Amino acid sequence: MSGHSHWAGIKHQKGIADQKRGRVFSKLLALIAAAAKTELNPDFNPRLRTAIAKARAEKVPSDNIERAIVRAKESADALEELTFEAYGPGGAALFIEAITDNKNRAIQEIKKVLADNHGKWAEVGSVAWAFTRTDADQTQTNADSALVSPKPGESGREWKAKFPQALPAEDKLKLDALVAALEEQEDVQRIYTNAQ
């Protein structure tokens, strides 16, 4: 029984669970900080109110939520909201939303994940035609193949595929692996695809 203790198993499982929870917490806190850039009072900022509700549902401590709001007040220009376009296995279109304090790092990390998982970086507008927004579609483009939302305080922003695409089983598995790898990135908030 050398090396096989009950506590070692618990410690290993707890470490994995804590790591996953930490990733979720950091994504939610970045979302709160980005939402608080326009208005710090959740009563007047529906996007911040929604982000706080999501964080509380995931049991993020209130102190952490307050620190994220204060961080937004102190460094209003530090966080950027970006949307990247890419193609996945089988030609599936991908929209990747991210919130980051370092745009160049985020771009390089996402490009690396795409290259490692049968994905391809796409130019601005090459994927946008395959999606529609559920709210007013007001985006502006910048260099580095990213779409930047001009109104960071908007709420309820969702992308829906105009033309859902059926994929073969092999490409579907590769796409699932790509999406999982992208979700592991701390800066990535949401991933939309047109695959069925």
Automatic annotation (TrEMBL):
Q: Which residues form a coiled coil?
A: 62-116
Q: Where is this region: Disordered?
A: 139-159
What keywords appear on the UniProt entry?
Answer: Coiled coil, Transcription, Transcription regulation
Alphabetical list of Pfam families matching this protein: TACO1_YebC_N, Transcrip_reg
Question: Mind telling me which GO cellular component terms the entry cites?
Answer: cytoplasm
Gene3D superfamilies, alphabetically?
1.10.10.200, 3.30.70.980
Q: Which domain of life is it from?
A: Bacteria
* TACO1/YebC-like N-terminal domain: residues covered: 5-74
The residue ranges of the TACO1/YebC-like second and third domain are 79-134
Family membership: Belongs to the TACO1 family.
- The name on file for this protein is Transcriptional regulator
